[in-house]
Amino acid sequence: MPLYEHVFISRQDLSNAQAESLVEHFGTVLSDNGGSVVESEYWGVKTMAYKINKNRKGHYAFLKTDAPSAAVQEMERLMRLHDDVMRVLTIKVDEHAEGPSVQMQKRDERGDRRERRS
Asked: What backbone phi and psi angles, to 5 degrees, belong to 2?
């Protein structure tokens, strides 16, 4: 089956438990349609570059999935209809990267960044 990565942003006025339950909810939608969630990460509340639906911040979540395209389309359709989800990004990948995503790594573990000059 094809491999996908999804990032979605939910409203800032949700609690952490509600935002994490959205991840579980959309994971069950995938599993009901023949797919599976390989890994999921909750990135927390982050400030966005611009306002979306009058919100400056949002709960970010990341999913790595192994699912047929019909299951992904159904999950995206339900995400667009859900009132708490503001944005969704889905990318088809050849393989999932091992370990935590870049967002979850500590700053000193990201060795590829240049030093800032003062």
From this structure: -65, 150
Mean pLDDT of 90-113: 72
Measured CA to CA, the distance from residue 100 to residue 80 in angstroms comes to: 27
| Of 55, 34, 35, 41, residue with least CA distance to 6 | 41
8 A C-beta contact, residue 59 and residue 23: no
Do 84 and 22 touch, CB atoms closer than 8 A?
Answer: yes
3-state secondary structure of 44: strand
Partners of 44 in the β-ladder? 60
pTM > 0.70: yes
